[in-house]
Specification:
The chain is mainly alpha-helical. It has a domain of 91 residues. The protein is built from five helices and no strands. Helix 1 runs parallel beside helix 3. The N and C termini lie far apart (70 Å). The model has no long low-confidence stretch (mean pLDDT 80).
Length: 152
């Protein structure tokens, strides 16, 4: 006698449905691409506002570099908090943005505003790179390792 297939039969366990390619593409677009686009838009918005404030001399050169360093460190701390809440994609993007802000702040302090010399700028860039490597190793941020390999 052949066993009937259905919910009443304990020997019949249907396989769970596999996600299709359309679902994977949707997750890729919504999860990654829009996230990167949002971070890029935020970077441009902050950049243009700070440019406007700096051109009108609302903030002096030393404070400009300090704002950048504080903002970059704050972004790194926020990315760590996001990672603890299991928002991995967004955490990686915010961490990358924080590293970029820190790098630009140290560069601007040396090359643009002449606030400190080349040895201190080198030490600052080395510290930013060391923090990036430490974060990439501790949190397994693949995008940070890729950024370092690309010749940051």
């Amino acid at each position: 006698m052949e066993a009937r297939r259905g919910r009443g039969n304990p020997r019949w366990n249907p396989a769970p449905p596999r996600p299709g390619r359309a679902r994977d593409l949707e997750a890729l677009i919504a999860g990654r691409w829009l996230n990167y686009l949002g971070v890029l838009a935020l970077l441009f918005a902050v950049s243009f506002f700070l440019k406007f404030a700096f051109e009108n001399n609302w903030v002096g050169p030393g404070a400009r570099v300090a704002i950048g360093l504080l903002f970059g460190a704050g972004l790194l701390a926020y990315s760590r908090r996001l990672l603890e809440r299991e928002h991995r994609y967004f955490s990686e993007s915010i961490a990358g943005l924080g590293v970029a802000v820190l790098d630009l702040s140290v560069y601007a302090g040396h090359a643009y505003y002449h606030l400190f010399g080349r040895p201190l700028a080198f030490a600052g860039m080395s510290c930013v790179t060391a923090v990036t490597v430490a974060l990439a190793g501790a949190c397994y941020h693949l995008s940070m390792w890729q950024g370092l390999a690309a010749g940051r």
